[in-house]
Amino acid sequence: MAEQSVTMAPGTGGRRTEWLAPLARRAEGVVLPVAALIAGFALFALFLLMLGKSPVDFYELVYKAGFGTAFSWQNTLSRAAPLLFAALCVALPARLGLVVIGGEGAIVLGGTATGALGVCLAGTPGVVGLPLMALGGALTGALWIGAVGALRHYRGVNETIASLLMAYIGIALMNFLVEGPLRDPASLNKPSTAPLPRSLQVGDIPGMDVHWGLIVALVCCVLTWVLIERTSWGFAARIAGGNVRAAQVQGLPVGRLIVGFTALGGAFAGLAGFYEVAAVQGSANASLAAGYGYTGILIAFLARQNPLAIIPVAILLAGFEASSGLVQRRMDLPDATILVLKAVVFVVILVSDTLYGRFRLFSPERWRTR
Amino acid sequence: MPHKILSRRAFLRTSAGLAGATALGTLPMAARAAGKLTVGFIYVGAKDDYGYNQSHAEGAAAVKKIPGVTVVEEEKVPETVDVTKTMESMINFDGATLLFPTSFGYFDPFILGLAPKYKDVRFEHCGGLWTPKDPKNVGSYFGYIDMAVYLNGVCAGHATKSKKIGFVAAKPIPQVLENINCFLLGARSVDPTITCQVIFTGEWSMPVKEAEATNALCDAGCDVITAHVDGPKVVMQTAAGRGAFICGYHADQSALAPEKYLTGAEWNWPKVYTGFVEEVLAGKEIPNFVRGGFKEGFVKMSPLGSANSDAARKQFEDVKAKIMTGDFVVFKGPLKDNKGNTVIPAGVSQPETDVALEKMNYLVEGVVGTTS
After folding, report:
1. Does the pLDDT at position A17 exceed 90?
2. In this complex, do B171 and A191 lie within 8 Å of one another by their Cβ atoms?
3. What are the boundaries of each domain within chain B?
């Protein structure tokens, strides 16, 4: 969009507000979701009033527990790391018009691969072992979600259904491996792979209680944005996402794009699994299926599949989750309260999608000529 | 310009009021400080699941009644970084100094990882195996509920007509295997031809699979069903709906189907938790490794249901009395597993206190099912 308006600008010049024209569309992409978010909060406030609880208290608590203190920030950020990766697994295929909702499977299997590799690599120094484990986790995730892309392109299988069903298969496979061939006999009442040696564990960012996965996830978000917005690959993917036939007529390698983008998304989800095992759990076990993959879907949609927007949205959602405990304890509300808030916000954001292009205020024409 | 002069009386009145307000304002704080102890309870599932989490929440409710104790609770906390942050949040925001994270998976690495950072906080974990190399401010406690399951088996043995009883189990881990074995051994004390069919759902809480498993057991002819999953509600309702008798687990499920409910193996956390908290209030230390059975009040039975025969009631009471004296042993040789291997040689007996039982990896002869 930006490219078009830039090329058109010299021809139509004259109006003073000309410079606003390219910004208008971008503003729409920010103002509408933010307005929807606020509307969602307001709706949820009504829900709280119906329960006889104070919305002011509620939002104050959410702020305090999610963002109010240094501890709150660390709490929020340590929850954000896997969510960032999980959201990328949705946002990347979305550029091709694919709705992949099975990132959970790639996270779980990426984590399992990490745990298994950790057992094989015990004794190797961290500089060698950790990158290999990360690679293993990412490759496993890439294969899992890449397979969804391949099924879509070569066999015409619906990627949404396939990825969701494969997530269940992935979780079952993880349970089988962790309780069977990969089980550490010493893990009595919680079947797990053998614990990773200290040298093969990922530490915390100095001075913080948050592991390095957060930094890597942030870098991945930025790199993905560059890939999508600033490379010919990203451009081709957007064309294919807009109209597959047109892309094929142009001679774009649609198949390779689909498999490549889904696989890359899966690799990010696999990395989330890697950090869950190497930085949080210390071994692969059933706790890997913690639902990060599903929260990732919500984040990617709220961020309108923009990898940079994923960052603030993931942090916001992580803050919600961080506050859910305090909300339970102080306001005597059930755990599901935060889930309701997330659902309300999600629905409102989806509804707000129908409003794009409805406001003259955001139309580039409005600022060019009248 | 009008100038208001503050009279001495007004000044006194105002300052007295201010002082009063300040005192009032600090009162809740003072009360909280005088309340000496804030206790945090953390559950992996819902507090009202008719099962594991409810049994602990009942314990928390009893602790709430102790004067001067504040209780904070959080449910549905996954066994991930979430539980670490919940514990820290209770410590930082609520001032909790005694924590009961009740799910098995919270222990390693989360409690063991956090305890060294908060040396003044006591972490009490249910089900873990604390060893002397673990932090000193961590403790683990558990109950010999397998004895209560044995009593379930006695009632089941008397009630079954088909001589087949069924067990819906979550995962083939030692605690679960021990309960399955006890259920069958209890039933076999009535009639040695009884067999027990087990179905593992693979998950601690998966109501759909639990219902499927229960139906499958009923289809296979099992006429007494019990379960070891986090919330046995679905199993109990489904089985009773199919006409089978039921034995409860974790908490009292008799309300779900009183006419089919034989009895149930229940935790007695109210007694255990109030005991722990009173010890802490008295300035004493809770031992790091605590185990207890019927005698210590860690476990109890649901009241016997109306469906039990007189013979069942008599044997139930006899065995229970023997367990209370502490010299009743379920696992003694010769004992074979269901593959024909001898797991306990003749002459060896493993009383409930034997830590070896916490590493059980077999199903006894007569159990239809496999551990893997």
Report:
1. no
2. yes
3. 35-143, 145-266+299-368
